[in-house]
Amino acid sequence: YPNTVNHFLKLNKVSADLHVINGSVEIAPNIGLADAICDIVSSGSTLFKNGLKEIETLLKSEAVLAVSPKISNESKTLLDTLQFRIQAVLKGQNSKYVLLNAPNAKLNTIISLLPGMKSPTVLPLAKEGWSSVHSVINGNEFWEVIDALKAAGAQGILVCPIEKMVV
Predict the structure, then answer these.
(1) Is 96 helix (H, G, I), strand (E, B) or coil?
(2) Residue 159's beta-bridge partner residues?
(3) In degrees rounded to 5, what are phi and psi of residue 9?
(4) 120 near 145, Cβ under 8 Å?
(5) Is 159 helix (H, G, I), strand (E, B) or coil?
(6) Consecutive H or E run containing 133
(7) Contact call for residues 154 and 108 (beta carbons, < 8 A)
(8) 42: burial class by Cβ within 10 Å (0-12, 13-18, 19+)?
């Protein structure tokens, strides 16, 4: 990372002393350790919280998993396990667990709006004529599905994040 910063500074003819700091580098300007910082950020919210603003992007990057075509069977098994776990986390991040109350008279309509993993879970409530419906909604369709559920008579809709999703 310091090499990337030094290369950027040299390319842009900027003379600066580079000091490597580990941890919360965003506080360095506020406590007099630096006039500016170069940091790896995803959202920039920590910069904003410390009164800083982004003025230049040095590099856009992403993590990737690459494999050699000459991988051994033992390593391939380990790689498959790692890939499965990564996919479970990513799938969970883009999904929401939804619980709602539905009048039994409108249950079929409400269930038809919920894709679920196989199908929604429906449990009777203590209040006669009502059921609790549990399902998973894709994050990309979330608001459209929620609006349709409300219009169909769903009430008390609770939405929970999903940490991991094994399918």
Answers:
(1) strand
(2) 98
(3) -60, -45
(4) no
(5) strand
(6) strand 130-138
(7) no
(8) exposed
DSSP state of 23: S
79-88 own/partner pairs: CB under 8 Å, 24+ apart: 85/164, 88/164, 88/165, 88/166, 88/167
Give backbone dihedrals phi and psi of 83, rounded to 5 degrees, phi first: -60, -45
In DSSP terms, 162 is beta-bridged to none
For residue 55, what are the contacts with CB-CB under 8 A and spacing of at least 6?
none
CA-to-CA distance for 15 and 17, rounded, in angstroms? 7
pLDDT for the residue numbered 24:
81
What span, in angstroms and rounded, lies between the C-alpha atoms of 29 and 94? 36
User: Are 45 and 52 a contacting pair, CB within 8 Å?
Assistant: no
> Can you list the domains of the chain with their CATH numbers?
2-49 (no CATH), 92-161 (3.30.70.120)
pLDDT at 153 over 90: yes
Cβ partners under 8 Å of residue 47, min gap 6: 26, 39, 41, 53, 54
117 has pLDDT over 80:
no
Encode pLDDT of 60-87 as tens digits. 888 888 999 999 999 999 999 999 999 9
Side by side, the strands of the sheet bearing 155-161 are 121-124, 130-138, 95-103, 155-161
